[in-house]
Design a protein that fits this description.
CATH class of the largest domain in chain A: Alpha Beta
Distance between the termini of chain B: 30 Å
Largest interface: A-B, 90 and 101 residues
Helix content of chain B: 25-40%
Largest sheet of chain B: 7 strands, antiparallel
Strand content of chain B: 15-25%
Shape of chain B: globular
Oligomer: heterodimer
Order of helices and strands of chain A: HEEEEHEHEEHEEEHEEHEHEEEHEH
Radius of gyration of chain B: 23 Å
CATH architecture of the largest domain in chain A: 2-Layer Sandwich
Strand order of the largest sheet of chain A: 13-10-12-11-15-16-14-17
Distance between the termini of chain A: 43 Å
Structural class of chain B: alpha+beta
Number of strands of chain A: 17
Radius of gyration of chain A: 21 Å
Largest sheet of chain A: 8 strands, antiparallel
Structural class of chain A: alpha+beta
């Protein structure tokens, strides 16, 4: 555990670095473990490594809240929760042992459990209760708090989830945690793409305890989590092939960490976030479908414009997730009215434009 | 003593005739109200302690009319205060003396229910309960259920990020809204979020939800619907003191259970509501817990058995489980009617909304008991115990000299106590004008300035609901001067954090 004195020293170093960069209008590249370097557009600037600002600040299992400094390894948090039979309900990918909680929240990526059908499912934004941020003026701002319900002031802490460091250095975060389900079981089924999508839609409309789905190469995997009786009932109703607990856990870890061979093919890998009920893609390439149809990974050589056009047509968006040849914007461009709000908002937090310039969008004039 | 609020005072007559003429020129007859007798019903929301006559009331019927009204107001630099059903409890919809009160009540259509996608697309004036009613034929419901759900609108719910008795398991409004379409103060339409689970760019939905009408005027909302659980049962557990009841709540959570609802009422509250609804509450208990399980029949039986065991072990003196849907609804009727019951037993009541870490429940309730003596006012407590959200109901009589001031001071004391123990001044009712001073304590100056920054990014003219939620530096300085506790911090004996 990092002592408060070490943390204070680390914070003052970070603050100095930000102030100096702001004074000289020099860009900073915020990077901790570097496990998500591939994500977003390339950025330039002097390295700002916040990992010295580390340590679990508080963890109260009966309050369902955990507070940690940004440099805390994500693995440490997961194991602290594990000991108390709790978890991060958004099941974030680590993408490497060096992953930190700050990077996890800044990237805003959630894993298989994001696609759970019932209540309690959500993205990182749904579990951020509070955050401290070092803004572009070198000030420490403190948003939200550590309680379950808090509507005092604008909910900036949740805005920071997925902000890719463009609003400042995320210093500390308070997360709502969840109890581990009592029972968990994975079943798999032989189904083609459209049958799998239809089955997911049909089951999502009933209170089945589905906590993850993944379809690939003609096989749908479904994870069931919850009360023992609810899981047993669903298993009986769904049938399918049963996986052992160990195989099931390994399978979902491979999906979450993208170590499954599908993700290791020749990129580019597109991440298409769509309404779960969207029709099959009908694009060239190979797919892996999660979140009951709401997340479709596509390895395809199709033109960016046609992938993005199809995603928009289906009511979602497409991100070039891995293997950007370099010429394509990673994220779907925003409509102009939203882009203006974005630019103004970013300028409020980072008036000198020093944080991760271009990582999310090329800096457009407000 | 009150620090004057922005936008209060006599209506600006000269501006009124100029703005009314401009609005009447572009909106249908009858959509623009200026006579006192027409605008008077809008002078306050659910927080009747604060009243202000609006300069003009506008009642548009279409999004295009909303945009037209906003463009006129923007060009004349006239502030706009959006309003839904006016059930808010923090004065968020209190009018502005030189502003337009923009009622979205007539945009109340449920545009589309998509049972496959489990979504409902609704206009802002649609009532919360009406969405669940429309979804019911498909076996679906809209989960957030504020106690005012019969009347409150989804637009207001978005503005306040409203909760309800089931949000421990099902989340607040913010966790159940997928997309918001709105108009900027300049009348420009923006769509934030989508029918997918995430959207490119910054997650602007996070700041729009709960922004109390200061960033956008909401014109359409896409909400997520949930499959209706097959079965629900509610446990009523009695406790001989509130601390023990608080520890029982922690024990349930520690056992890895997230009940569908976990509510506490103290004895003053049960005795207040029982004659009103005959819920069957144990009136001898110092506190009761309502603890609900929902899901399949098997799941509910399993969870009820586990929770009953935990509550017993934690010291419950009596446990009863609802044996029918009618009985379950009766248990909840008492809780949901706590505010109206307060209105029945007392000429006036003032509902607070702080959230605290659950472990502070005992000390905080004890401190509230002391405050009852200090201010000579009764204060029954109902709360969302599962998530630490308190609703002390301060009972007073506005006709009794000094009573209003004592009630306000009592309320302010409770809010500051919530901050002192590591909580927040509002869990679900919003800041509005009611808690604006306490935000000086809860957030430091750079953080408050960042809030203003968020507001400028959406509304550079700062005309949408001005003077609410975020106190100015000047206001905080004033508040600081008036707020001297004989040189002591409030509640010096209370353990912190």
């Amino acid at each position: 555990m990092t002592s408060p004195a070490i943390a204070a020293a680390a914070l003052s170093k970070l603050t100095e670095q930000v102030r100096a960069a702001a004074a000289g209008r020099r860009p900073l590249r915020i990077r901790a473990g570097g496990t998500k370097d591939f994500y977003g557009n390339p950025t330039v600037g002097e390295l700002l490594d916040p990992r010295e600002y580390s340590g679990l600040v508080a963890y109260e299992p009966t309050e369902l809240v955990l507070t940690a400094r940004c440099g805390t390894p994500l693995a440490l948090i997961v194991s602290a929760l594990d000991e108390r039979n709790q978890m991060l309900a958004f099941e974030p990918p680590h993408f490497g042992a060096a992953a930190t909680v700050g990077g996890c929240v800044a990237a805003g990526l959630a894993g298989p459990r994001r696609g759970a059908f019932g209540p309690g499912a959500g993205g990182i934004r749904d579990f951020v209760l509070g955050a401290k941020l070092l803004n572009g003026r070198g000030e420490v701002l403190s948003f939200g708090g550590t309680v379950m319900k808090n509507v005092a002031g604008y909910d900036v802490s949740r805005l920071l989830a997925g902000s890719l460091g463009t609003l400042g250095v995320l210093l500390e975060v308070s997360l709502k945690v969840a109890p581990r389900p009592v029972a968990e079981e994975t079943r798999s089924f032989e189904l083609d793409e459209s049958a799998a999508l239809n089955q997911c839609t049909a089951r999502a409309g009933k209170p089945w305890p589905v906590s993850a789905t993944a379809w690939h190469a003609g096989r749908l995997h479904v994870r069931l989590s919850g009360a023992a009786s609810a899981v047993a009932l669903a298993c009986k109703a769904f049938g399918g092939e049963r996986m052992t607990a160990a195989d099931g856990a390994a399978f979902w870890a491979c999906i979450r960490e993208q170590t499954q061979p599908f993700f290791r093919q020749q990129p580019p890998l597109w991440r298409m976030s769509l309404p779960a009920t969207a029709a099959p893609l009908a694009l060239p390439g190979e797919q892996l479908i999660e979140w009951g149809g709401a997340l479709r990974w596509l390895v395809s050589g199709a033109e960016a414009a046609s992938v993005r056009g199809r995603a928009a047509g289906l009511g979602g968006h497409a991100t070039l997730f891995r293997g950007n040849p370099g010429s394509i914007a990673a994220f779907t461009p925003l409509p102009s009215a939203l882009a203006r709000i974005h630019a103004r908002l970013t300028a409020e937090f980072d008036p000198m434009g020093i944080f991760n310039p271009g990582r999310m969008y090329a800096n457009a004039p407000g | 003593m009150r620090i004057p609020l922005e936008g209060t005072g006599p209506v600006d007559q000269e501006l009124q005739s100029r703005a009314a003429a401009a609005l009447k020129g572009v909106l249908p007859a009858g959509a623009v109200l200026v006579e006192d007798e027409d605008t008077r019903p809008y002078e306050c929301d659910g927080l009747a302690l604060y009243r202000q006559l609006p300069m003009i009331v506008v009642l548009p019927e279409t999004e295009e009319q909303v945009a037209t009204a906003l463009r006129v107001c923007s060009s004349l630099a006239v502030p706009v205060v959006p309003r839904g059903a006016g059930t808010g409890l923090s004065g968020g919809a209190m009018p502005h003396r030189a502003g337009v009160l923009l009622s979205l009540a007539k945009l109340n259509a449920i545009l589309d229910i998509d049972p496959q996608a489990r979504t409902a697309r609704v206009q802002p004036g649609a009532r919360n309960l009406a969405i669940s009613e429309a979804a019911a034929p498909h076996g679906l419901f809209y989960a957030p259920d504020p106690s005012s759900q019969i009347a409150c609108t989804i637009g207001g719910n978005v503005a306040e990020n409203s909760g309800g008795v089931h949000c421990l398991k099902y989340g607040l409004t913010g966790n159940n809204v997928l997309r918001v379409r709105g108009l900027t103060m300049a009348g420009e339409a923006v769509t934030i979020g989508s029918a997918a689970l995430d959207s490119p760019g910054l997650d602007l939905l996070s700041v729009v939800l709960g922004s109390e009408g200061m960033l956008l005027v909401v014109t359409e909302v896409l909400v997520r619907l949930m499959p209706k659980p097959a079965c629900a049962r509610c446990i009523m557990a009695s406790f001989s003191n509130v601390e023990v009841a608080g520890e029982a709540v922690a024990a349930v959570i520690a056992a890895g259970i997230i009940p569908a609802g976990l509510e506490m009422m103290d004895q003053a509250a049960t005795r207040m509501v029982e004659p009103f609804v005959q819920a069957g509450y144990d009136l001898d208990a110092a506190a009761i817990l309502l603890c609900e399980a929902d899901g399949t029949a098997e799941e509910v039986a399993e969870e009820v058995a586990r929770m009953s065991e935990i509550l017993h072990a934690a010291g419950a003196t009596r446990i009863s489980v609802s044996s029918s849907e009618a009985e379950r609804l009766r248990f909840w009727a008492g809780r949901k009617n706590a505010f109206p019951a307060a209105g029945r037993v007392s000429p006036d009541y003032y509902c607070m909304d702080g959230t605290i870490p659950r472990r502070q429940l005992g000390p905080v309730l004890h401190a509230i008991r002391e405050m009852e003596r200090k201010y000579a006012l009764a204060c029954p407590n109902v709360f969302h115990a599962g998530d630490g959200n308190l609703h002390p109901l301060i009972l007073f009589d506005a006709n009794d000299p000094g009573s209003v001031e004592r009630a306000e001071a009592f309320g302010a004391d409770i809010l500051e106590l919530c901050i002192a123990v590591g909580g927040t001044v509002t869990g679900e009712h919003g800041v509005g004008i009611e808690k604006i001073n306490q935000l000086c304590i809860q957030f430091d100056a750079p953080t408050r300035e960042a809030f203003f920054g968020v507001r400028r990014a959406f509304d550079p003219q700062r005309l949408l609901n001005p003077g609410k939620v975020i106190p100015t530096l000047h206001r905080c300085a004033e508040f600081g001067r008036l707020h001297v506790h004989q040189g002591q911090i409030p509640h010096p004996t209370l353990p912190r954090f």
